[in-house]
Amino acid sequence: MAQSAPPVLSVVPTRALVDEKFKVLVENLAPGSPVTLHSLHQSEDQDYWEAFGHYISDHRGVVSVAEDLSFGGTYTGVEVMGLLWSMRPAPGSHDCKRLRKKNVCTPILVSISVYRGHLAEGFRDQSPLASVLIERWYMAPGVQRIDIREKGVRGTLFIPPGPGPFPGMLDMWGGGGGLVEYRTSLLASHGYASFALEYFPPGAMWKADVDLSHFETAFNILKDHPQVIPHRIGIFGFCLGSTVAMHLVTESSIIKPLCCVCVSGFHMTVPEFTVKKVHELMVKHSNVVRLDENNHEIWRDLGPEMIKDPSYKLNVQKINCPVLLVSGHEDQNCAAVENAEDIFQSMTVLGKEHLVTSVQYPGAGHMIEPPFSPHSSAIPFVFKAKIKSKWACGGQPKPHSDAKEDAWMKILAFLQHHLYFCTTPKAKM
Q1: How buried is residue 122: exposed, middle or buried, by Cβ count under 10 Å (0-12/13-18/19+)?
Q2: How far apart (Å, rounded) are the C-alpha atoms in residues 40 and 104?
Q3: Do residues 83 and 213 both lie within one domain?
Q4: Of 331, 375, 393, 402, which one is the catalytic site residue?
Q5: Quick one: 27 and 115 in the same domain?
């Protein structure tokens, strides 16, 4: 008797940007066969991350992740990208890790495998029926990566492929510090000359004596690059970077961004603004910090506490460019939803509400990043010199993943509209 053909696993495409979806298909199974689809990635920290779903083949002996239910595993239901967004540290790896790409010049390698039966552990001790290795990239082919070290500014500029010039983006991350390139390189892959700014070293917020002139200099370095359209530049800020971004669009008389994206941010200020002074104000009010059930620090009450003093509240009514505010209702690090609502109300008083777009996500936490990356429930943070904490981020894996996917699409649409297709709406006087 002829032997039946072995199962065939296909993943299409096997090489793509991290924000692109793939299709996973298993064929040549016996009808009604229980199988487990499993993903495995070894991070740059040498930790293993995995996800898995339990499936049953249809009458044709086929499992399609895009159409079929997962009956168990790290995700359930029809989840096209569940094998990525539901990844978690594999047994033996460190807890409270954050999967974050450091070297964007190399891909994220993920092994997708199919196993017989419904498994929940011991994947590396068994032989899969079939496996496929896929590549997930932040940098599209042809994107240029350029180190910037001038005028006291440190960062990385990513130039899209093609003749240019292109609209520009100044990209700023939060209080963890360091040079973070993955979102910036992905923006370049979507057509924006994007500048990842390192405005203080990792863990050094407490001594970052950096004022607005530093960010204005960075903006002008981007503006003056020959591959950048000088009058079409936006600003992108996350967490502390959002605070900086709001300062630039309200307080700077030197630069004029065309639009601004703020994710999980708050609109506080200090006299003679510097990052170090923001940190000092946080320390002053850190008595409102509390712990969750895992002893992770909840900081969301800090922002509202600080701006009880009106002198610490940024005058957002001076905004004169379109602003997109992205926030999660379960953010445990920042009262971002309340912040967005206050900004909208303040702008409405002056008839400038048309400049503010606010998108809010129930079930989402603090780390609203590009889509399909695993959820981070807490992140390590150096709050004071040599004093490390674990900050609660909040959010639930499934709604948080949905928020990241939807927010990223809205961000790209917002940038395309304002940086490619139109000029800045005029504020009502």
Answers
A1: exposed
A2: 19
A3: no
A4: 331
A5: yes
Out of 366, 375, 400, 418, pick the active-site residue: 366
Q: Domain range spanning residue 111?
A: 8-137
In terms of domains, do 77 and 155 share one?
no
Report yes or no: 28 and 8 within 8 Å, Cβ to Cβ.
yes
Query: Is residue 128 within 8 Å of 114, Cβ to Cβ?
Result: yes
428 belongs to a structural domain: no
DSSP letter, residue 70 = B
For the chain, how many helices (H) and strands (E)? 8, 21
Please enumerate in sequence order all residues whose Cβ is within 8 A of that of 346, keeping only pairs 6 or more positions apart, or say none: 316, 317
Which CATH number characterizes residue 192's domain?
3.40.50.1820
pLDDT (tens digit per residue) in 21-41: 999 999 999 999 999 999 999
**CATH number of the domain that residue 115 is part of:** 2.60.40.2240
Read off the pLDDT band of 96 (50, 70, 90): low
Residue 377 pLDDT grade (very low, low, confident, very high; cuts 50, 70, 90): confident
Report if pTM > 0.85: yes
Instruction: Tell me the percentage of the chain whose pLDDT exceeds 70.
Output: 96
Domain final residue, candidates 110, 137, 164: 137
Tokens of 421: 């297709």
Question: Does 115 share its domain with 155?
Answer: no
Number of domains in the chain: 2
Residues 151 and 99 in one domain: no
Computed over every residue of the chain, the mean pLDDT equals 93
In tens, the pLDDT along 209-226 reads 999 999 999 999 999 999
> Taking the alpha carbons of 326, 328, 332, 337 in that order, is the dihedral positive or negative?
positive
- Read out DSSP for 325-357? EEEETT-SS--HHHHHHHHHHHHHHTT-GGGEE
Q: How far, in Å, CA of 296 to CA of 283, rounded?
A: 17
Is the bond preceding 13 in cis, omega lying within 30 degrees of 0? yes
331 is catalytic: yes
Is residue 370 a part of any domain in this protein?
Answer: yes
From the candidates 239, 260, 262, 393, which is the catalytic residue? 239
Smallest Cα–Cα separation from 325: which of 271, 214, 419, 249? 249
Nearest 10 degrees: Cα torsion 151, 153, 158, 159: -20
